[in-house]
Amino acid sequence: MQYWLMKSEPDECSIDDALAAPGHLAPWTGVRSYQARNIMRDLMRVGDGVLFYHSSCAEPGIAGLAEVASTARPDPSQFDRKSDYYDPKSKRATPRWLMVEVRALSKTRLVTIAELKAHKALARMWTLRPGNRLSITPVSKAEWQHIAGKLL
Q: If you write DSSP's letter for every residue of 126-147 in order, what string do you get?
C-alpha cells in the first residue's frame, strides 16, 4: 500500500462533497500537471491511502481521509468545451489527461499547513518542500502513521 496527499479546492470538491456523493466517490478530474498525471497512471493503486487536502482556500490543510477507488482512466473534462479544464489538443483516441476516483472515508479536524510544518517527523514531507505546487504528492508510511496517529 502507498499513501498520497491529494489537493482539492473545496469550492470544486470538498471532503463534505465527496462524503455526500453516491458511494462517497469523487472523480479526481481537472489535474493538468504531467507529473501528477503520471503518478495517477503509473503509481496509484486501488486501496492506496489518501490525505484529502483542501487548497486555495482561507485555511488550507488536511480535511479528511480517503482511498484510491479506481485505476486511472481518461478525464472527461478534457473533452468538454464548457469545462474550465477543456484541452483542445487532447483527442479521444489519445487522451492527454487522466483521473482516478477517490472514495472519501471520513472527515477529520482540519490539520493546517502550519501545524504540519511544526512537526519534525514531517520535515521531509514532499508537500512541505519549498516551491512545491503539485496537486498529488507521495506520503511515506512513517508520515502517514504520524499524521493519522497524532494529528487527526
A: GGGSTT---SEEEE-HHHHHHI
Which DSSP category does 94 fall into?
A: B
Whole-angstrom distance, CA of residue 79 vs CA of residue 95: 9
pLDDT category of residue 133 using cuts at 50, 70 and 90: confident
Q: Is the dihedral of CA 136, 140, 145, 150 positive or negative?
A: negative
**Cα 127 from Cα 135, distance rounded (Å):** 9
Instruction: For 26-54, write each residue's pLDDT tens digit.
Output: 999 999 999 999 999 999 999 999 999 99
Contact (Cβ atoms closer than 8 angstroms) between residue 137 and residue 126: yes
Sign of torsion, CA 152 10 73 137?
A: negative
